[in-house]
Amino acid sequence: MRFSNSAFIALFILAGCSNPKDTTIPTNLDSLDSISVSLKKLTPEEQQLFAGYFMRHAIGAKMGGLFGLKAAPIPEGMTIGKAVDEQRGYLADETVKESDEKALKEKVLKEREQVMVAMRSAVTVTLKVLAVSRQIGKLRSSLLTGTTLTRPSPESKARLT
């Protein structure tokens, strides 16, 4: 009896000093309370990372279909430490992806603006040519009919420029 009490105390001390990151995450959501003690031993940052991992996998796998998202459930044998590391990597990848998307968006907007500038200059030139063509047309028709042309008014000059 004395040996079993000593073994129990030693086991209890070892369990209290164990690394919380080595705790295996249960795949059944109902037994999540079994890891709450280990989660409390994590730093606040690690707790947030684990919560993000858990939300992404456990809840995403259950309810992701409602939103058109597919998330893999928590794999068998996943530890808290691995989950925290995986979430940290996931967030880093998402940050890179967001910056790439932002850079692409800026590039597309810049190219679009360059095309718009080119189009505006082409349209302006076309309108000037059209206005000059109208004046030449009037000149031709006056030469053919023998009528005299009057000088253009300031308003019509403004339209030509």
What does this structure look like?
With about 160 residues, the protein is mainly alpha-helical. It contains five helices and no strands. Helix 3 packs across helix 4. The N terminus is likely disordered.
**Which segments are poorly predicted (pLDDT under 50) over 5 or more consecutive residues?**
1-16
Count of structural domains: 1
Proportion of beta-strand residues: under 5%
| Major sheet attributes | none
From N to C, what is the helix and strand string?
A: HHHHH
Fraction of residues in helices? Answer: over 70%
Class from secondary-structure proportions: mainly alpha
What radius of gyration results from the CA coordinates? 37 Å
Shape: rod-shaped
**Total number of β-strand segments?**
0
Distance between the termini: 108 Å
Oligomer: single chain
Kindly state the mean pLDDT as a whole number?
76
Can you count the helices?
Answer: 5
Task: Summarize, please.
The protein has helices at residues 2-17, 36-40, 44-63, 80-145, 154-160. The chain is mostly helical.
Describe the structure using short key phrases.
0% strand; 5 helices; single chain; rod-shaped; mainly alpha; 161 residues
Task: Please give the structural blueprint.
Elements: H1 2-17, H2 36-40, H3 44-63, H4 80-145, H5 154-160
Helix pairs in contact: 3-4
